[in-house]
Amino acid sequence: MERVISGISASSGIGIGPAFSLADLTGSARTAGDADSEAKALSSAVKKAALEIAELAAAQEGEAAEILGFQVAMLEDDALAEEAFALIETGAAADQAWRTAMAVEIDGYQSSDDDYFRARAADLSDIRDRVLAALFGVESDRPLPQGSIIVADDLKPSQFLSADWTGGGAIVLGQGSPSSHVAMLARARSVPMVVGIGEAWHSLSGPLVVDGSTGLVTVKPSEATILEAKAKSGDKARQRQEAEQHILEPAVTKDGTLIKVMVNVAALSDLEGLPVDAVDGVGLTRTEFLVEQALHDEDAQAADYTALLQWAGQKPVTIRTFDAGGDKPVKGYTVDGESNPFLGLRGIRLSLMHKDVFKIQLRAILRASMQGNAKIMLPMVTSPADLENARELLHACRDELISEGVLHALPQFGIMVEVPAVALSPNMFDAAFYSIGSNDLTQYATAAGRDNAASAKWADVAHPGVLAMIAHVARHGVATGKEVSLCGDAGGDPAVIGKLLHAGIRAVSVAPGLVAMAKAAIRAVDLSVREEAA
Ligand code: PEP
Ligand code: MG
Questions:
Q1: What is the pTM (predicted TM-score) of this model?
Q2: C-alpha span between 492 and 11 (Å, rounded)
Q3: 275 falls in which pLDDT band (50, 70, 90)?
Q4: Which residue of 217, 327, 384, 471 could cross-link 534, Cys pair, CB 3.0 to 4.6 Å?
Q5: Distance between CA atoms of 460 and 295, rounded to whole angstroms?
Q6: Which pairing describes strands 258-265 and 483-486: parallel, antiparallel, or unpaired?
Q7: Whole-angstrom distance, CA of residue 295 vs CA of residue 292
């Protein structure tokens, strides 16, 4: 019998396909056999995990290969599982013994004073999970099958990025939130996504219909439901096609106001199929995704930034420095175990703590800036000192390049406005430009976490309080002649574009898949009708 489960819409579109469940092992438990069989089970799970990781490592290069190599070495060291085998002797089941022993290890690494060892704690968690997967007979590296509906408690951005979405598919999550980074990636690739369905995700199997716009998931859909979903999907595709036909035309409101539409980029492949003439440049490059594997590799980063600048010709390319932290953990870089990562060490705060890594990025941007019109943008700026300390480092990098005789150019230096205190005091910052991160600004202003499905309904960018902050920043831009753009997801949401423009926004940066639809929504706005003004 058909049944409908209601969740929260995170990325629009219709997905029709079989459920593919990503197992969650946190609640799984083995019944203990005799000590001998438990020891054998653990030892073969450890061997299997080591083999799998070694195979993965062989296919990687640079830092990724090093990280995996470290994991193999840990697993091959008998000392790691010694405590678990001792617990098995006392009657514990293999999984319980392994979890307990690894918790002690992970804790030890996490509480180390040394950055390096703290960073290795994340590797140990990976190792723990992979051995557990082997113990429970779950393939931890099953490729996500094309065209399936991925069903899970939550999904990491890296898991999303490792899947091939070209053959369709959709995502349904027990937890999650529409403003999480994985939702942002889903919107960029036009992958339908529903979040926050709660415990019901465990029971999803067989064919599903996912409506990313309404947040409804139909289990065991009838023929009629499937036909209706196909028709709706067809309507959406037609609307999109119609908008795509005008993608190269400027975005001018009914009253004749020209709005800049730029694009947000997380990977070079995002730009495939997007004509550069469709946009006014790149308004946000999420480098924590673009160069995540090249944190310590200046040449590799410079090559990626150069590729972006070359794609854009002379149009501006805004390169945001690493915005790791929050729901974007980066192994060896972000801090594990923060009680509230969104209020902790994120973005520029972390960059200024890891000056060695930050300098590599700044040098790479300075070098690539020879190839076009680059702008540097700092994420999560809170106090003017964040901007000035970063500027000092930028100038130090420029001086180094001069003394090394390396060609470079100094880009404009601007900030994101994501922290309410900054939105209310933009005049305190000596920035060349401002870009409003409405995703974070909304979460902080409405006290509704991006990672929390239960509070998603409060995270409303159209809240008059949020719009008032946006309007305040826009007025500062007009008064100073500095550009104020908005690069959060609201800029690509036809339901709120009108309100943003009425609040004074004249430049947006949106996901590649939303450029055409955003332009169509802008063309429907009439700014001479004042009632929507913030
Ligand atoms: C934002 O916060 O609106 C933003 C664009 O940054 P991110 O979504 O990457 O945090
Ligand atoms: Mg942000």
A1: 0.74
A2: 11
A3: very high
A4: 471
A5: 34
A6: unpaired
A7: 6
Q: Encoding tokens for residue 381?
A: 């700026």
Q: State whether the beta carbon of 184 lies less than 6 angstroms from ligand 1.
A: yes
State the Cα–Cα distance between residues 291 and 66, nearest whole angstrom: 16
Give the C-alpha separation, 456 to 450, whole Å. 7
Q: Tell whether ligand 1 has an atom less than 6 A from the beta carbon of residue 180.
A: no
**For residues 409 and 370, is the Cβ–Cβ distance under 8 A?**
yes
CA angle 438, 514, 473 (to 5 degrees): 25
Report which bound ligand comes closest to the CA of 436.
Answer: 1
Sign of CA dihedral 158, 191, 444, 454: negative
Nearest-CA neighbor of 124 among 105, 142, 96?
A: 105
CB neighbour class for 405 (10 Å; exposed up to 12, middle 13-18, buried from 19)? exposed
Q: How many residues does the chain have?
A: 534
Query: How much is the mean pLDDT over the chain?
Result: 90
Angle formed at CA 199 by CA 196 and CA 203, multiple of 5 degrees: 115
487 is catalytic: yes
Give residue 23's identity as a one-letter amino acid code.
Answer: A
